[in-house]
């Protein structure tokens, strides 16, 4: 497998947004954030205002890394799901396809059971979408389908002679 940089096109982002916007409605969530393991925000949906999304993304990735360390100490591979209960809002954090982190913020208008059920379905859809994105990125990295794949170094050198 080629270790390709993930490249996401607008149509890929629109698929992702459609899934998380549906999840906001189906889970009655206040907000959903999709973050990569490096702490970069990929997508967001919902009605959360005044959230520092940069901090949310980096702290979420740090939380996943820290609990991954704890898991290894006690002999687990990872803790793929986290739940934090607050006085007003709750966080449900889950790993998607070993590379993404989904953060769902919800209050008492929803329940943990409903959120978990809906996240499971949305997670499957997102994993499938990111698998397609990964395959496209790998094809692009290998030059497959690229109009420049046939150009050699000699061809480039000949242009400047």
Structural summary, described in words:
This protein is α+β, with helices and mostly antiparallel strands and 161 residues long. The protein has one domain: Dynein light chain 2a, cytoplasmic (Beta-Lactamase), CATH 3.30.450.30. 48% of the residues lie in helices and 19% in strands. The protein has 4 helices and 5 strands; from the N terminus they run αββαβββαα. The chain has helices at residues 10-27, 53-73, 112-142, 153-159, and strands spanning 31-36, 41-46, 81-85, 90-96, 100-106. It has a 5-stranded antiparallel β-sheet with strand order 2-1-5-4-3, sandwiched between helices. α1 runs antiparallel to α3. It is elongated. The relative contact order is 0.17. The model has no long low-confidence stretch (mean pLDDT 87).
């Amino acid at each position: 497998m080629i270790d390709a940089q993930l490249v996401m096109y607008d149509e890929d982002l629109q698929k992702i947004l459609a899934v998380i916007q549906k999840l906001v409605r189906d889970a009655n969530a206040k907000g959903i954030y999709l973050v990569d393991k490096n702490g970069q925000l990929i997508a967001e949906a919902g009605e959360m205002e005044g959230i520092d999304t940069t901090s949310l993304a980096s702290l979420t990735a740090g939380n996943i890394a820290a609990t991954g360390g704890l898991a290894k100490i006690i002999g687990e591979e990872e803790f793929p799901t986290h739940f934090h209960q607050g006085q007003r809002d709750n966080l449900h954090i889950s790993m998607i396809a070993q590379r993404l982190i989904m953060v769902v913020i919800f209050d008492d208008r929803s329940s943990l059971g409903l959120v978990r059920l809906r996240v499971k379905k949305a997670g499957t859809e997102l994993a499938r979408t990111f698998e397609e994105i990964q395959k496209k990125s790998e094809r692009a990295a290998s030059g497959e389908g690229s109009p420049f794949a046939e150009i050699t170094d000699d061809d480039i050198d000949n242009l400047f002679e």
